[in-house]
Amino acid sequence: MTGVGGGHHHHVDPGELVPLESYRREVLKRITPLKPITLGLLEAHGCVLAEDVVAATDVPAFANSAMDGYAVRAKDAAPGDELEVVGEIAAGAARLIEPGPGQTVRIMTGAPLPPGTDAVVPVEVADDVDNWVRLRVGSQPGDNVRAAGEDVRAGEIVLKEGTRLGAADIGMCAAVGLGSVLVRPRPRVAIVSTGDELAEPGAPLAPGQIRDSNSYTLTTMAREAGATAYRLPIVRDDPQALLKAFEGALAHADLLVTSGGVSAGRRDFVKEVLSQLGDVRFRKVGMQPGMPQAFGYLVRGRSHAIPCFGLPGNPVSAYVSFEVFVRPAIRRLQGRTDLNRPRVTAVLDTPVRSPAHKVSFLRVTLRRSGSVWHAQSTGAQGSGILRSVVLADGLAEVPANVTEVPAGQRLVVHLLVDPAA
């Protein structure tokens, strides 16, 4: 039977634990979307609109040809008719030739329809010899013509406030003539790993050191959540160094995320320094992995306060904490309403144990059998075992009041991968 968590755990008085859901609610209530800014269309990709986009003109602005062919009056264009070709209109043409009775004009795709004409005969069904064209088919008014305003009418709302701008939305902004849009920007997130024991991935390991993987994991997670994230160099366990690093990060960040130094150790200076900089509170949250959590606002200058999450140092604890608290916070800063991962209900194939009084997040792989999802533990679930996350398709949530989950039981799984992909 797999246990969730692993490693040795100090006995925790259940009375000290803050229930996960109420802590998460309390944290997210304190995060407000960033102020809107105007960005050029390509920079605005992936950002959330802060106002409706209204078309100033019809799209298309004028009736134009949907194909290469001949502009005709439909009533004068029966099968077998021969018409005199009196000119040619290319896309982008400003001067339009009006054909008289028994006449036609060659027209290119996208070119404006000449006055007096109401249909286009495709080049494939007409025989053109010496500027006379013989039609093999007849025409109805509107054939192969894109009418003015058939896509969008002037004054119409084409994109609503709150839309996250994808490729087609950016194209629509361009089509209605906007070179820039008012959006909530991508949050700038600063990630700091702290600890004397940490070494850079490319550097040799001194005795007693471990590689810093957290800052790389968390920076990437922040980018995947839609932020502009940057990683600061490792900060040693020294109050002055920590203060300097945190103050430096605040100068150009909308959110600070630290990992390590938030539990009850004697050298957990992160606590002390964050408390000096703002109203950060340290809590024991009823979850596993990831019980020690810190959240609050750090003051930058006199007026500006920046939210800060202090996550635990174990790699899996940091990962799960980010998923549960930081990812939705980043999305809220962007003005998004879809804060949560998609979820599925899955049948657990392997029995698991779970600690009392804590919601536990079991790393699982998923497979589908017919219409039923099946979840299986990724193996050892210790909070230092990063492989348990590498292999995971999702996090299965075991409720706080459940200590054993038999095989065959259904659990809610928060998807870490796109099930359609």
The CATH topology of the largest domain: Molybdenum Cofactor Biosythetic Enzyme, Chain A
Strand coverage percent: 25-35%
Calculate the terminal CA-CA distance, rounded to whole Å. Answer: 31 Å
Spatial arrangement of strands, main beta sheet: 2-21-23-24-20-16-19
- Could you give a short account of the major beta sheet? 7 strands, mixed
Poorly predicted sequence stretches spanning 5 or more consecutive residues: none
CATH architecture of the largest domain: 3-Layer(aba) Sandwich
Class derived from helix and strand content: alpha/beta
Principal-axes geometry comes out as elongated
Describe the structure.
- The structure is a single chain.
- The longest helix has 19 residues, at 315-333.
- Helix 4 (214-224) packs parallel to helix 7 and helix 5 (239-250) crosses helix 6.
- The protein folds into four domains: 2-36 and 185-333, 3-Layer(aba) Sandwich (Molybdenum Cofactor Biosythetic Enzyme, Chain A), CATH 3.40.980.10; 38-57 and 152-184, Molybdopterin biosynthesis moea protein, domain 2, CATH 3.90.105; 64-146, Molybdopterin biosynthesis moea protein, domain 3 (Molybdopterin biosynthesis moeA protein, domain 3, Beta Complex); 343-415, Beta Barrel (Beta-clip), CATH 2.40.340.10.
- A hairpin with a 2-residue loop joins strand 27 and strand 28.
- The relative contact order is 0.15.
- It has helices spanning 20-29, 41-44, 167-175, 214-224, 239-250, 269-277, 315-333, 387-390; strands at 2-3, 17-18, 37-40, 48-49, 53-54, 64-65, 69-72, 82-89, 103-107, 119-122, 126-129, 132-135, 145-146, 157-159, 180-184, 188-193, 198-199, 210-211, 228-231, 255-259, 281-285, 287-288, 292-300, 304-311, 343-348, 352-353, 359-369, 372-377, 394-398, 404-405, 410-415.
- It is 19% helix and 32% strand.
- It has a seven-stranded mixed sheet with strand order 2-21-23-24-20-16-19, sandwiched between helices. Strands 10-7-9-8-12-11 form a six-stranded mixed sheet, with no helix packed on it. It has a five-stranded mixed β-barrel with strand order 25-28-27-29-31.
- It is α/β, with parallel strands linked by helices.
